[in-house]
Design brief:
This protein is of the alpha/beta class and 375 residues long. It has 13 helices and 11 strands. The chain binds nicotinamide-adenine-dinucleotide.
Length: 375
């Protein structure tokens, strides 16, 4: 079993990682459950163990990660007479985390919540840090989803990670999670020269020994959360170093939006990291062996196994991509991009908006979409 304690301004909270943790959980401390509709067995288990517990179920889609869903859940809690002293449990992937956590922050100005992440992505990333937000649909000539525009930083009280949930994930969902672990390992290279090596070692061990997959996954989850803990404890409120965690996200979110969320979040971020690496190389001349090897790993090991990606990528139009890229909430009057640093890890760089940058990004996007399309 791995355990971590995360220090936050409001309270410290614990993370436990253990196979079969969910099977042995006691649900009686909770006043209500919010659970992903897909997780029928988990829902059944909760209903058997705590038959009177109100359970709200919904389908985890980006369009349901909305203010309308927040309102529905708030009303559900009110209809079940949930009080200010309540503690609710959210069970699901990143969408449940983000929507459920926001509900907890809003209901009666804030109630306690805990989280059981059930996708690899939510185990390695979303489950700590307390970033909870929903999307908003902006209707111009074409409709654009602005990701995570309305939100709060509102940490959970406990995080219970049971890697057994990963057994029902598709391989695209597993690789989506691995892309975020790769991101964490790469950005941590700035502070610790060993983390990237440890990641590569675990990745190789897992892919060459399928029988060790569960054990390696638990170690990869712990590695990723150690990195995120290090970063969020230095900058909980996202004013400086926490933004390093957005490596690949400005490009990646725009790709997600332009493909109407048909590709897994982590795979979009993986493409986004390749874009960021290419932008740093062409615009700033930043290149070295670590960066090149990392880019090859992302392209060959994380993205290449998914040839179907190219069908969705082909549908991207420059206008939808560029609108979403510009709407990224991290930009101010200038673009803010998280790019690889020559000396290891990543840096926050600001750029004045210009036609030159737009053309450069357009070329990079075309190159990547063509090269992924040819796999
Ligand atoms: N708050 C954060 O720090 C943070 C970090 C990363 C991502 N996110 C957000 O998380 C979202 C993506 O989350 P995600 O990829 O974890 O999943 P998700 O919540 O988007 O779910 C993806 C699909 O997996 C299904 N699913 C959930 N658990 C499953 C299981 N055990 N087996 C099989 N299928 C399962 C869901 O029903 C859904 O169909 C995005 O909205 C992203 O913005 C948030």
């Amino acid at each position: 079993m791995h355990t971590l304690t995360i220090k936050a301004l409001s309270h410290n909270y614990s993370v436990e990682i253990e196979q079969t943790l969910f099977d042995n959980m006691d649900f009686t401390p909770f006043s209500a459950i919010i659970i992903d509709q897909y997780l029928t067995k988990a829902r059944q288990k909760i209903a058997e163990k705590a038959p009177t517990l109100p359970i709200f179920t919904y389908e985890a889609t980006e369009s349901n990660k909305s203010l309308a869903m927040v309102e529905r859940i708030l009303l559900f809690l009110n209809n079940h007479h949930i009080t200010k002293s309540a503690h609710i449990l959210i069970v699901g992937g990143g969408i449940l985390h983000d929507t459920g956590g926001l509900v907890a922050s809003l209901y009666m100005r804030g109630i306690k919540w805990s989280f059981v992440p059930t996708t690899l992505l939510s185990m390695v990333d979303a489950c700590i840090g307390g970033k909870c937000a929903v999307n908003i649909e902006k209707r111009t000539q074409s409709s654009v989803t602005i990701k995570n525009l309305i939100g709060a930083i509102y940490p959970p009280y406990h995080v219970f990670i049971d890697p057994n949930f990963t057994t029902t994930l598709s391989s695209a969902q597993i690789y989506s999670g691995l892309a975020e672990v790769a991101k964490s390992a790469f950005l941590m290279h700035r502070y610790d020269g060993m983390i990237l090596n440890n990641y590569v070692h675990l990745y190789n061990r897992m892919t060459s020994n399928p029988s060790q997959q569960n054990e390696c996954l638990a170690d990869l989850i712990a590695l990723s959360l150690e990195v995120k803990k290090f970063i969020i404890e230095r900058d909980e409120f996202d004013t400086n170093e926490r933004r390093y965690l957005n490596f690949g996200h400005t490009f990646g979110h725009a790709i997600e939006s332009a493909t109407h969320y048909r590709i897994e979040h982590g795979l979009a971020i993986a493409i986004g990291m390749v874009c960021a690496i290419d932008f740093a190389a062409t615009h700033m001349g930043i290149q070295n062996n670590t960066i090149t090897t990392f880019k090859q790993h992302i392209k060959n090991d994380i993205l290449a196994p998914f040839p179907k990606l190219s069908n969705y990528l082909k549908a991207i139009t420059w206008e939808t991509f560029w609108n979403a890229f510009n709407d990224d909430k991290k930009h101010d009057t200038q673009f803010e991009l998280i790019l690889p640093a020559e000396t290891g890890g990543v840096d926050r760089i600001h750029f004045t908006k210009s036609n030159e940058i737009e053309n450069n990004i357009k070329d990079i996007l075309n190159d990547i979409l063509n090269s992924l399309g040819s796999h």
